[in-house]
């Protein structure tokens, strides 16, 4: 159902802190122009938890207007199941094509609670769901065993695999075959994940470097692994910026430098400053200086 | 300003999931009867993140009606600074005596962001603040260095020390003397913390065992350490239930058995079940069977 | 210099606890028959730290007698630098082709100490060295920066990459190009490591399943990744046994079942027993029941 | 049997790297003069694993010559059980009063292996044993359950509690009453451990500051907790140097500054240098500048 490169897009703000839909239209459009296969809005990278529900729905509508029929997924990540269900319902009504669902943003659910929450969200939204498994960020592990338990409900169609352990991808295939579309959610494990069978990449640095991200995916799909690996090695210093507490600020700085966007974030986040900003900026500039020409692909 | 035993009270729900103010009035009253020195509402234990802001304010008002003039603190714990400030403002307007503030519930703020957030909440609420330092639960460490940076604002009056490392208490005294009231926030480190100079205990199992909690604190204050230690050793198997992902469910089960309350929680939480419930119940029953008579104290 | 499949062989003991050279000759021979590219003796898997230096040298000689001219590496892993140098010297004199070197088995060296120790061992043995980088087991990280510092000494020729983080392999290539032969030391990350450019596999389960291990390596070398991946997926439940505190016992049990060897280990290790043994045995038997026919390769 | 302050003494080396028995005689003597209750030789702090067995025995004899009849314990910490037993036997023959035993220095024993190893060492040495429980350094946790299993053998008389979690002390008392003498092995948790009932302190900074260490212990024993706590707060910046990968170098630098000894260590250790040395030296000097007068005690 879902495969290829799915950007987890950043949200854009005006100087007064309100949503900047024009800039989102421009930036989301760059993703689609580069050949991305859909858009995921209001995730961690999209600062969803810092927005009201009305704002999240507005971002989703902007994405839909740009996506040219390709799927737009709303992120469901809230403290309470009640709030998660509300997001799911509102997103469905407003035309989302699917949901990317975190069991709980605050409480660490046990296995039974994880399953119950995911099922409640599926009931509430009645949309196809990508299960977001990220035991590092959320301290809840949606394990292959839980994926198997959820498999009887056809609305659960995909896994965003962000365990930070590349072994997990093979474990999912060994347990569940191709029941789920497995997409990697960790930028600097993407080549490895695609090499062992992942069908897609929920990407972060793609926001600033959409063509390179798409090229790696497409080259691998065509069996041109050596070319993809060369590109990935170049890309790695940038991809590492996605695996950081400060991924939002890192990627917005990359967007500022690579696609002329801005670094505005919502509090408590602040833009990078001082030595950290210098270090990240120099990583980005160094990579851009040796930015490789992209090979042609199908 | 704040010292002694401050219960972080649980919230009570009716069968239909709505707030049960009668039961809260009863349970909060047991705390005050036992000699507690105030109440803290809508923390982790109070399931604050699972409630609307209106509900949190209602719980706070119920606590105020029971506290007999002793301080009632509202917990400020939200994803965005905007929402944190809104809670602070509403709580102040509604009559809270102080705030217990977590820098951010979701994002891991860096030092500058931590300070900025705490200052923004102080501005918004203009109430005395207990800084909640809990690097384990929130992955943000409000260090003694940050406490020092915040010290120039007199609204920051207390620290809830929940680093899970008893060494930290002495580090705060060594750096800041008695600038802050240091209260321990970890039930099964409470004796140790009071032994090295903490002036209070933000307590959890107190919800089910208020008299024993108060007795340990008062005995130590009177220099009767051996008696306090004997009581603490008895209490330890119960206090351990506070240091758990399932502390809310654990403590509500203890309340059900010890003070006749109920175990209702809000999703995604579910009451304990199966082997886990049996194990916790047997710990509670075993402790209650050998519940010691309390010595008289001043 | 070194590439392909290099088994980290187990040592074999008689019932009285002494070395069983006949059984080692037989088992090491199975490795060479299957097409392995050398042998590494007296590592963790070889229980080197449980043997006297004389015993280690004897095991090395037995390996040399079997290896048919392919390289035999002695593991250098001791508490003190003095002892490490003694092992290196004795191994060189006795005919070892190279050394696999752990900076320190007990103390966690800082960067300067790590470099100094590795250089001291190189001086003492004057043999080609594979640097064993395993921050999990030894809590010392031989980082790419340290590899760069050591690069001026031509005796450091290879890296056994066992950081447990597949990202590290690409980091080494990005920093050092092909200065070092990079071999993966983690069985259940081997496909991924070879996919991103590792030239060899210091293998564990190879002791029990030499042909399958060699087949995966050779197929990938021939660009037949899909066939290799299918084999690797089958192999994964076994390869996981290498990433365990009990890897020696796990692999010896696999050897007992797959190549008719025995499970004897030296104290404090004991053979697996009880539920653990049942679980591991059932993993091994389950895999052997669906053992795939191997495709022909060059 | 054992209680009070037991220094884990450092070993002293001449410029040529050989043992400096004269300096050990002097330094061990300072410990006894200050009122320490015994000596423990060849532990981590004593660089035991960097010495030959003959050297360890020689250090033990030097300690015996100085201890004036107070107990001298030999540390048993080796990779193999065979080697552990050899140390125990040799130490017993040479006149050690007891053994401090680590289950295994390299391999992480499971519960059955931990018990078997400790029993084997008890058989071999037939001396009273202090079980060294340090799950941080050795990744083997000798839990209260295992202590209970070992309790039937009267040779196991004491616990060196170094779990880094102060809760453990109370857990031992709650499970085993006073079956074992519980001594804390973590300098900067010592006040807390003694406050909850530990009967002794296996100390590190005592090497450089014997009188202050003894004063804290004795004052607490006399119920003069406030005086002890004031001293402990002063001492904390120094005691923190014991909880470090570089504890040997830290404490030897403290000995150089406070008792005129030297910083020589055995490779792979090197003395502190650069910024680290400056930082540690300034901590030591700052504490010495405000070194308090010690109160008189019994």
TrEMBL record, chains A, B, C, D:
Could you state a single Gene Ontology molecular function term? 4-hydroxy-tetrahydrodipicolinate synthase activity
Q: Where is the active site?
A: 132 (proton donor/acceptor), 160 (schiff-base intermediate with substrate)
Write the record's keywords in alphabetical order, separated by commas: Lyase
Q: Binding residues for pyruvate, per the UniProt record?
A: 202
Coiled-coil residue spans: none
- Which family does the record claim for this protein? Belongs to the DapA family.
Name of the protein in question: 4-hydroxy-tetrahydrodipicolinate synthase
Which species expresses this protein natively?
A: Chelatococcus asaccharovorans
What taxonomic lineage is listed for the species of origin?
A: Bacteria, Pseudomonadati, Pseudomonadota, Alphaproteobacteria, Hyphomicrobiales
């Amino acid at each position: 159902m879902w495969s290829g490169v799915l950007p987890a897009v950043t949200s854009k703000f005006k100087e007064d802190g309100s949503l900047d839909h024009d800039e989102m239209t421009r930036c989301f459009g760059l993703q689609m122009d580069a050949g991305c296969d859909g858009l995921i809005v209001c995730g961690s990278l999209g600062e969803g938890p810092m927005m009201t529900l009305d704002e999240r729905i507005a971002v989703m509508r902007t994405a839909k207007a740009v996506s040219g029929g390709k799927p737009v997924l709303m992120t469901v990540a809230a403290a309470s199941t009640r709030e998660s269900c509300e997001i799911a319902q509102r997103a469905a009504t407003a035309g989302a094509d699917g949901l990317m669902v975190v069991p709980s943003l605050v409480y660490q659910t046990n296995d039974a609670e994880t399953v119950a929450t995911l099922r409640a969200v599926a009931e509430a939204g009645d949309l196809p769901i990508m299960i977001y498994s990220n035991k590092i960020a959320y301290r809840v592990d949606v394990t292959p065993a839980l994926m198997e338990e959820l498999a009887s409900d056809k609305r659960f169609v995909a896994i965003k695999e962000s365990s930070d352990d590349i072994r997990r991808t093979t474990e999912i295939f060994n347990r569940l075959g191709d029941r789920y579309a497995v997409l990697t959610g960790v930028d600097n494990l993407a080549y490895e994940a695609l090499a062992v069978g992942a069908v897609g990449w929920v990407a972060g640095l793609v926001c600033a470097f959409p063509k390179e991200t798409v090229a790696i995916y497409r080259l691998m799909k065509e069996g041109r692994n050596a070319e993809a690996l060369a590109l990935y090695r170049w890309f790695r210093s940038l991809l590492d910026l996605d695996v950081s507490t400060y991924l939002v600020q890192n990627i917005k700085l990359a967007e500022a430098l690579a696609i002329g966007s801005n670094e505005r974030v919502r509090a408590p986040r602040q833009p990078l400053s001082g030595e950290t900003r210098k270090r990240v900026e120099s990583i980005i500039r160094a990579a851009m200086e040796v930015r490789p020409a992209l090979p042609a692909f199908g």
